[in-house]
Design a protein that fits this description.
The protein is α/β, with parallel strands linked by helices and 1112 residues long. The chain is built from 36 helices and 39 strands. Among the domains are: 116 residues, Rossmann fold, CATH 3.40.50; 157 residues, D-amino Acid Aminotransferase, Chain A, domain 1 (2-Layer Sandwich); 63 residues, ATP-grasp fold, A domain (Dna Ligase, domain 1, 2-Layer Sandwich), CATH 3.30.1490; 166 residues, Carbamoyl-phosphate synthetase, large subunit oligomerisation domain (Carbamoyl Phosphate Synthetase, Chain A, domain 4); 137 residues, Rossmann fold (3-Layer(aba) Sandwich). The strands form 7 sheets. A 7-stranded antiparallel sheet has the order 14-13-10-11-12-15-16, with helices on both faces. It has a 7-stranded mixed sheet with strand order 17-18-21-20-19-22-23.
Length: 1112
């Protein structure tokens, strides 16, 4: 295979010199960029960041960019970046259609996660890249295949004497068992071509291995069985190489957790803290040797297992693409890896590129850090029923935080608070009881708290904690410094007795004001956070602002990438900008994700266009909002009241935008306002009136807007009386919730007693609100922007699912297809009344249910909502831009426009992206608690076409093709399952059920043959064989309610559809919609797939072609 790069000889061409003469790849004017699709566990916001950087680099080089990415919520899918955008499935099939239409000169495969990389390898095997003469920029396909195929990889590393764990590639369960006998238990199993350790795990014996291998082989054609090195240190290096063999290591990172936990689920520190100089250089040299031998052009990461008490090491894996770690490394060092990798792909060499942060030095250098970075994952496992909480070699976290400090203690405590604002910092929890040793020995999402409990409250020694956790004693020693400070603070009897030096030392170890207040509080006298703040400021103890300049301040560098610390003697910046603060959304979690990052970035963009200086506060390394070139100043900091107020006062800010970062900024808005912060938009007192359920419901009554019957209760007795009066089911919800946390539908008195004990734990300060839950009602989302109580724009999206499925898990259709003109007018009227009653200026969102002809408001959020990017991109009007102009007021405010009165000749459908595959045991059943981790959307000429494309855009979705089997199960008292089988009859499928009752029910809806098949509920291996025997390629399971236990037949059917990577439809309305889409589109799909020529289907059109102009 000849290289697309003309020369691999070094030249004297260097940035900023007369010799500058880059030799770029010839004949490349247009580049197809492969995106990563919907956010899922293991493949999240980091690809929005790296993909956006790649497009920035291509634009700078004056290349036309064509992007395929169905993730409508991201910054990458905006015309301010890509020239052409296709919201289509990221699959070899759809990429081929776009290539046929667009004829790009080149393709970028390494910026779309594992999805993009797998597509590239498949397109190469299919001969598509050769047929259309498309150049692969950056790392060649051969290298990508070598790093993904475990045998080839092992062979390549053996050639250069680099040690890897002894492993065997296996394609059957029997091979796996033989391999394990050879290497000896315990073993680790990994899947080839899989993302985030999907399908990998540890086995201590043959039975465990048999089950794990069976599951892994359903997700991947090849698995690797290797000797486990559990308990060794895990270290990672990010390496960059150009076409002429210049090589640098940009960042090295060390996991706090020993080997055995996926790096995405590990607490990580950069730079590494416990390596000796010898170890550091040994691994650095090995990383450079590996990347050169493999022939990577661009960026890659090398993961090592390092013997804790010697110099032995093994290479665990190499990712020859941008990854989660590379996003983290970029933010940790300030070195933009994705941007640099894209430039290298075009043929630039490292000496030819400037360091984009300093703009004065070249990119051919290794950053040095004068600070420590801590990364902690965010898990949301409590949202799932029956989920396994252990963390191991397969990733389960939904997001991550990054904190910067001048010492370990400062960085670690900051990061712990960022993960969850209810944490004080390093702390314990009494949830473990007498099982503390167990909680320390086996890693779960709560282990950091177990370490805190052991050291802080149970008097465990460092040796004992190390013995149980295998966490390096150096880290535990540092944690003990925090413990000692706690003890010193607890010895202080009152606020007056808190001395200046002790307070300063506590701040230097990362203690927050609130943490100090609670530590010195005594039963008789509690001390408040604001009192500590006042005392601290009176002592002139305020944080200093430091720059990240990639050079450890060794050269003068004027960067805008900042953090605060108490471990300094002066600030690096002048405070004369008076910039507008924009509060970002913090860590990605279920319910608050990349859509709020789109909102924050667009807010900053609009403010800059309006001539305002901007200051972003956010601590999420996966985001575009924390990219150094999006704002005038970027603070990588906590979104707590204390830190935001510190920055507001230091910067002497003109104002603060609180309505675009989701629920986190909302929760501190009132406190900021009461302490003199100029919050833009709706008054926080009015926001509080919408967040407090009692005030909210009372105001709706006063303006004659309908809502379900409700009451506020403080005791279980009151709750029972209300529920008997309105009849069950009822909805139980506390105030100030995000994404339905602790909200639940209750069907009986017995359930009510159980649930109320849970909800009162959630918010002891706020009583609980109960409302009548209306079954079978349609749900509608209204997104709007108002100015002084007058609506400027609004969008009405209808849910496919009935009320009762959380709006974040719902399928949304826009423009609405089934609502009458009267209903739309009534919704507009409600939006006006609500805007007026709450005096709204800025963004807001309402959820409304349609019960017969009656419209009832069930929720109102006075902030940007999850669906803002969706409605903005579908209607071609940027709602955030209008919201920012409304907040600025005066002549900036645009005239009102009724977007819903327009006629649209297209429809868009937004579909949730779930990550159940990652969450072993979790029941894939939808309810009022949100479960999806992301979203995708597609356009079409009608609702069926747009849904058909959108559902195929979800990760690993395969359209079932006849004569495969479809398995049915669930509720036989309603028509839904019958409707589904009616639509898919006579298409050539075989129909199966697991019991006679379902068969009898379905026979009244179809003339086709239905077979009852064996359904072993307790034996996963036998069940897999059953699925294979009958070639089951889709499952429709429409159960009436959640499973009582894990032996419930419907639960087993749903869960195994997920585990065997088979499309599952578990909700009536979407099941019917998919069945109708299948009926309408199947013949065309089969014809296209069987054709020898490339036939481009109807739905393959760009965003611009659908909307009719180029929205930004």
């Amino acid at each position: 295979m000849t290289s697309i790069y003309k020369s691999s000889e070094p030249t004297i061409s260097t940035f900023n010199t007369p010799y500058y003469k880059p030799q770029l790849v010839e004949g490349v004017e247009s580049v197809l960029v492969i995106g990563s699709g919907g956010l899922s566990i293991g493949q999240a916001g980091e690809f929005d960041y790296s993909g956006s950087q790649a497009i920035k680099a291509l634009k700078e080089a004056k290349k036309k960019t064509i992007l395929i990415n169905p993730n409508i919520a991201t910054n990458q899918t905006s015309h301010s970046l890509a020239d052409k955008i296709y919201y289509l499935p990221v699959t070899p099939e759809y990429i081929t259609y776009i290539i046929e239409r667009e004829r790009p000169d080149a393709i970028l495969l390494t910026f779309g996660g594992q999805t993009g990389l797998n597509c590239g390898v498949a397109l190469d095997k299919m001969g598509v890249l050769k047929k259309y003469n498309i150049k692969v920029l950056g790392t060649p396909i051969k290298t990508l295949e070598m790093t993904e195929d475990r045998d080839l990889f092992a062979q390549a590393l053996t050639e250069i004497n680099i040690p890897i764990a002894t492993s065997f590639a296996c394609e059957t369960i029997d091979d796996a068992l033989k391999a394990a006998d050879e290497v000896g238990y315990p073993v680790i199993v990994r899947s080839a071509y899989a993302l985030g350790g999907l399908g990998s795990g540890f086995s201590n014996n043959g039975d465990e291995l048999r089950e794990l291998a069976a599951q892994s082989l359903s997700l991947s054609p090849q698995i690797l069985v290797e000797k486990s090195l559990k308990g060794w240190k895990e270290v990672e290096y990010e390496v960059v190489r150009d076409r002429v063999d210049n090589c640098i290591t940009v960042c090295n990172m060390e996991n706090l957790d020993p080997l055995g936990i996926h790096t995405g689920d590990s607490i990580v520190f950069a730079p590494s803290q416990t390596l000796s100089d010898e170890e550091y250089h040994m691994l650095r040299s090995a990383a450079i040797k590996i990347i050169r031998h493999l022939g990577v052009i661009g960026e890659c990461n090398v993961q090592y297992a390092l013997q804790p008490d010697g110099l032995d090491y093994r290479v665990i894996e190499v990712n020859a693409r941008l990854s989660r770690s590379s996003a983290l490394a970029s933010k940790a060092t300030g070195y933009p890896l994705a941007y640099t990798a894209a430039k290298i792909g075009l043929g630039y060499t490292l000496p030819e590129l400037p360091n984009p942060i300093t703009k004065t030095t070249v990119a051919n250098f290794e950053p040095s850090l004068d600070y420590i970075v801590a990364k902690i994952p965010k898990w949301d496992l409590s949202k799932f029923q029956y989920v396994n909480r252990d963390i191991g070699s397969a990733m389960k976290s939904v997001g991550e935080v990054m904190a910067i400090g001048r010492n370990f203690e400062e960085a670690y405590q900051k990061a712990l608070r960022q993960v969850d604002p209810s944490f004080l910092g390093f702390q314990g929890s009494n949830e473990f009881g007498d099982k503390l040793d167990e909680a320390l020995a086996s890693a779960t999402d709560r282990r950091a708290l177990a370490v805190g409990q052991a050291l802080l409250h149970e008097n465990y020694t460092i040796e004992r904690v190390h013995e149980l956790t295998k966490i390096d004693s150096w880290f535990l020693q540092k944690c003990m410094n925090i413990v000692r400070m706690y003890k010193q603070l607890e010895a202080v009897n009152s606020l007056d007795a808190l001395e200046k030096d002790l307070l300063r030392n506590a701040k230097k170890l990362g203690f927050s004001d609130k943490q100090i207040a609670i530590s010195i509080s005594k039963d008789s006298k509690t001390v408040g956070e604001l009192e500590v703040r006042k005392l601290r400021k009176s002592f002139d103890i305020i944080p200093f602002v430091k720059r990240i300049d990639t050079l450890a301040a060794e050269f003068p560098a004027n960067t805008n990438y900042l953090y605060t610390t108490y471990n300094a003697i002066k600030s690096d910046v002048e405070f004369d900008d008076n910039g507008m603060l924009v509060l970002g959304s913090g860590v990605y979690r279920i319910g608050s994700s990349v859509e709020f990052d789109w909102c924050a970035v667009n807010t900053a963009k609009t403010l800059r266009e309006q001539g305002k200086k901007t200051v972003m506060i956010n601590y999420n390394p996966e985001t575009v909002s924390t990219d150094f070139d999006e704002v005038d100043r970027l603070y990588f900091e906590e979104l707590s009241f204390e830190r935001v107020m510190d920055i507001y006062e230091l910067e002497n800010s003109e104002g603060c935008v609180i309505s675009v970062g989701g629920q986190l900024p909302q929760n501190i808005a009132l406190k900021l306002y009461e302490n003199g912060c100029n919050t833009l938009g709706t008054n926080p007192n009015d926001i509080d009136n919408a967040e407090n359920r009692h005030k909210f419901s009372s105001i709706l009554d006063s303006i004659n807007v309908g809502q379900p019957d409700w009451t506020e209760v403080t005791s279980i007795e009151e709750a029972k009386l209300f529920s008997r009066r309105v009849t069950y089911p009822v909805l139980v919800r506390p105030s100030y919730v995000l994404s339905g946390a602790a909200m639940s539908v209750v069907n009986s008195e017995h359930e009510l007693e159980d649930k109320l004990t849970l909800a009162s734990d959630v918010s002891p300060d706020h009583p609980v609100v109960l409302s009548k839950f209306i079954e079978g009602a349609e749900e509608i989302d209204v997104d709007a922007v108002a100015y002084n109580g007058q609506v400027l724009v609004h969008a009405i999206s209808e849910h496919v699912e009935n009320a009762g499925v959380h709006s974040g898990d719902a399928t949304l259709i826009l423009p609405p297809q089934t609502l009458s003109e009267e209903t739309k007018a009534a919704l507009k009227d409600i939006a006006h009344r609500v805007a007026h009653a709450w005096k709204i200026t800025g963004p807001f969102n309402m959820q409304v249910i349609k019960d017969g002809d009656k419209l009832k408001v069930i929720e109102c959020n006075i902030r940007a909502s999850r669906s803002f990017p969706f409605v903005s991109k579908v209607l071609g009007v940027n709602f955030i831009e209008i919201a920012v102009k409304a907040c600025l007021g005066g002549d900036k405010v645009p005239e009102p426009v009724d977007l819903m009165a327009k006629k649209y000749n297209y429809v868009a459908t937004k579909v949730p992206q779930f990550s159940f595959t990652r969450l072993a045991g979790a029941d894939p059943y939808l309810g009022v608690e949100m479960a999806s981790t992301g979203e995708v959307a597609s356009f079409g000429t009608n609702a069926l076409e747009s849904y058909w494309t959108a559902i195929q855009s979800t990760l690993n979705f395969h359209v079932p093709l006849p004569p495969s089997g479809i398995l049915f199960g669930g509720d036989v008292k309603k028509d839904f399952l019958g409707e589904v089988i009616k639509s898919v009859s006579n298409l050539g499928f075989n129909f199966y059920v697991a019991n006679e009752e379902v068969k009898k029910y379905l026979q009244s809806y179809t003339d086709e043959n239905i077979s009852v098949i064996e359904f072993p509920k307790n034996d996963k291996r036998k069940l897999r064989e059953v699925f294979q025997k009958y070639d089951i390629k889709a499952v429709f399971n429409l159960a009436a309610k959640r499973a009582e236990n894990t032996l419930d037949e419907d639960y087993v059917m749903r869960r195994n559809a997920i585990d065997f990577a088979i499309p599952l439809f578990n909700e009536p309305q979407t099941a019917i919609l998919f069945a109708k889409s299948l009926k309408a589109k199947l013949a065309e799909k089969i014809k296209i797939l069987e054709s020898n020529d490339v036939i481009v289907p109807e739905e393959v059109r760009s965003w611009e072609e659908y909307v009719g102009f180029r929205p930004v």
